[in-house]
Design brief:
By secondary structure, the chain is α+β, with helices and mostly antiparallel strands. The protein has helices at residues 73-90, 113-124; strands at 2-5, 14-17, 19-21, 26-29, 44-47, 53-58, 63-69, 94-97, 101-106, 128-133. It is globular and about 45 Å long.
Length: 134
């Protein structure tokens, strides 16, 4: 497990990333980062002397679709269920954080258009924000 330094956004903030050690100082990312930009599932990264992620050595070609729900609790549960069903239907690996943040792995060659079609009306209604990172 490594940490990514996110203090440029908030002092002392870090994201914990599950990894698999490849060599003494290189690791393969084994999770879906929620807040760390430019790092995706299966990217190979290295660490600095403080054991913080320092740079990407090799990109995997995976992308991360991130969703943040911004609606009240009752509506959030309904939207959570809708999105969860959609991501399961299309068979994409995903992780939820506190029922509010969704990270979806987009392996190389993935057509995310069906999932985005479900996100667009919700984003336009102000219920969520979404982005794709690579």
């Amino acid at each position: 497990m490594l940490h990514a330094d996110l203090s440029d956004r908030q002092h002392g903030w870090r994201e914990q990333l599950w990894t698999r050690r490849l060599t003494e100082d290189t690791f393969e990312v084994a999770c879906l980062p929620f807040f760390t930009y430019g790092i995706c599932h299966r990217d190979v990264v290295t660490i600095d002397s403080d054991h913080l992620l320092s740079r990407v050595v090799r990109k995997s070609g995976h992308r991360t679709l991130r969703v943040a729900l911004v609606v009240e609790h009752a509506d959030r549960d309904q939207i959570h269920e809708l999105l969860h069903g959609k991501v399961v239907d299309v068979g994409l690996p995903h992780e939820w954080l506190q029922g509010t943040y969704l990270a979806v792995d987009l392996p190389p060659g993935t057509d995310e258009s069906l999932f985005i079609e479900a996100l667009e009306p919700l984003a336009e209604a102000g219920a969520l924000h979404w982005e794709i990172d690579s």
